[in-house]
Amino acid sequence: MQPSAESLIRLLESYRGRDKVIRTACYGSQLVGGYLSRRAEAGDSSHRLGKRLLLFSAQLSHCRTVLRLFDDLSMLAYSQSYGFGGKEEDECIRWLSVLNNVADQLYYPCEHIAWAADAELIRVKSDKWWLLSTVLWGTSLLLGILRSLRVLMLLKEKLKRCERDEGDNSSCSQLHRHMRGEILTILSSTADLSNAVHWMPPGFLWAGQFPPWLVGLMGTISSVVGLIQMNAGDGQETEST
After folding, report:
1. What are the Cα distances from residue 167, in Å, to 22, 159, 181, 239?
2. CB count, 10 Å around CB of 42?
3. Is the CB of residue 225 less than 8 Å from the CB of residue 198?
4. Rounded to two decimals, what is the model's pTM?
5. Domain ranges of the chain
6. Secondary structure in 3-state letters for the chain
7. Residue-by-residue pLDDT tens, the chain, 241 positions
């Protein structure tokens, strides 16, 4: 079997990897489907294909929502292990991370209630719960961006000291890799944040103004970056073992 196929199989065997693949397929389908629906005339075969891809994207999005019903405990375990970030050297990073964890933890039950309301399992209106979950998601993304920017500032200072003191190449290379990782995180979170704003109520910045293909593009950028980071993380673990 080809190494690329084996890598894909390993990715799909893990929950985190499968979610990233589904997410990429979801936004990729929305990107292509939105583009075809926009450019092709009604009744044209390309237009029909675009509509089907948009429906496929919606089903994958629903699939991810259902799978997230089981993410609360893992998020809680992570939040408890991090605590108040006593091991962090920087106070700013510490509190940004704590607030980020709080936003992430609150996001899941809000989304679960919205999903249950849409599925008519409970008798509440889902609109306000979807809005609250979107606000929490956007807040988490913004906090993550601010945290990465702060980390980048500290890494630049460390890199300057490393180069000035003529430290070993491995330490400087590691700092460069860490910086690239934070830049990718900022790119991914910014793309997602643009979509989060789009899903806010009309009148808030550019809410509701993105066409489907642009939502798909932003999501695809974020998803591909996530896959790159996951692959890079696996590579670093292999090197360290």
Report:
1. 42, 9, 21, 21
2. 8
3. no
4. 0.92
5. 1-67+212-241, 71-210
6. CCHHHHHHHHHHHCHHHHHHHHHHHHHHHHHHHHHHHHHCCCCCHHHHHHHHHHHHHHHHHHHHHHHHHHCHHHHHHHHHHHCCCCCCCCHHHHHHHHHHHHHHHHHHHHHHHHHHHHCCCCCCCCHHHHHHHHHHHHHHHHHHHHHHHHHHHHHHHHHHHHHHCCCCHHHHHHHHHHHHHHHHHHHHHHHHHHHHHHCCCCCCCCCCCCCHHHHHHHHHHHHHHHHHHHHHHHHHHHHHC
7. 567 788 788 888 999 999 999 999 999 999 999 999 887 666 688 889 999 999 999 999 999 999 999 999 999 999 999 999 988 989 999 999 999 999 999 999 999 999 999 999 999 999 999 999 999 999 999 999 999 999 999 999 998 888 787 766 788 889 999 999 999 999 999 999 999 999 999 999 999 999 999 999 999 999 999 999 988 765 454 343 2
Give, in degrees to the nearest 5, the angle at Cα 101 between 175 and 205: 90
Say if residue 4 is exposed, middle or buried (CB neighbours under 10 Å; 0-12, 13-18, 19+).
exposed
As a dihedral over the C-alpha atoms of residue 57, residue 62, residue 66, residue 69, rounded to 10 degrees, the angle is 100
